[in-house]
Design a protein that fits this description.
alpha+beta, Creatine Amidinohydrolase, 4-stranded antiparallel beta sheet, 3-stranded antiparallel beta sheet, 4 helices, globular
């Protein structure tokens, strides 16, 4: 029987090359994930809790015939990750109330017809400080810098090199404890995509590879500390702000496509 995918093999990783049919399925799920983020804009306002935003996301996902990949994943209790202010990633939706001046990252992964789409973005709650807006703007450019390195034959390390070089130039640090990852047929696949790396290192990209780029950029130190109470929430060690953007990428014959970029930002 012919396999649904082939592997680029090495002693360190086996990267699945998706078929055209699989890429189309992943694209549909990725587009739905983008729709979720757009839909939630109306609910990211002062006075709402992150659990309320989570519940609205779950309603939307299920209404569209999909599942939330994070719900129940290794015990995670949210349909999305909600990470405000100093929370870097994996924030668990709870009774935390959003306040004017907060920044919030929402990360959503949908499963539609067995395919996964993964994306995240930043939201401003009311009026935010200039420094918070600058962090968000720089982080968004970091993702664009990483996406620009996605084309056949380039090495994965150049994604992290471009991101970290720009972030450091702007005076920010890059979280190294978390990375992007292959996605599509499973929640997490090979390869790991580092956001800080040496130039011209790592495996080469090939058409059909699908993965996320999701830089986490901090105002202060790069280190994350995991909340012992829930075992998930990752905060900056110094309590300073963090921001993150994410897209699911497929390498094409001539470059790449951001499968989660439904609204034309990339």
């Amino acid at each position: 029987m012919k396999s649904d995918y082939v592997y680029i093999c090495s002693p360190f990783m086996a990267i699945k090359i998706k078929t055209a049919k699989q890429i189309e399925g992943i694209r549909k799920s990725a587009q739905l994930a983008a729709e979720v983020l757009k839909y939630l804009e109306q609910y990211v306002v002062a006075g709402n809790t992150t659990k309320y935003v989570n519940d609205k996301a779950l309603e939307f996902i299920e209404k569209h015939g999909a599942k939330a990949a994070t719900l129940g994943y290794k015990g995670f209790t949210g349909a999305i990750c909600t990470s405000p202010n100093e929370v870097i990633c994996h924030g668990v939706p709870n009774e935390t109330v959003l306040n004017d001046g907060d920044i919030l990252n929402i990360d959503v992964t949908t499963i539609l017809d067995g395919y996964y789409g993964d994306t995240c973005k930043m939201y401003a709650v009311g009026e935010i400080s200039e420094s918070a807006q600058r962090l968000i703007d720089v982080t968004k450019v970091c993702l664009k810098k990483g996406v620009a390195e996605c084309y056949p034959g380039n090495r994965f390390g150049n994604i992290g090199y471009a991101i970290s070089r720009y972030a450091h130039k702007k005076g920010y640090s890059v979280v190294w404890q978390f990375c992007g990852h292959g996605v599509g047929l499973k929640f997490h696949e090979e390869p790991e995509v580092s956001h800080i790396a040496q130039k011209n290192t790592g495996k080469r990209m090939r058409p059909g590879m699908v993965f996320t780029i999701e830089p986490m950029i901090n105002e202060g130190v790069a280190e994350a500390i995991i909340d012992r109470k829930d075992g998930w929430t990752a905060r900056t060690r110094d309590g300073k702000l963090s921001a993150q953007f994410e897209h699911t990428i497929v390498i094409t014959e001539n470059g790449c496509e951001c499968l989660t970029d439904k609204y034309g930002e990339y």
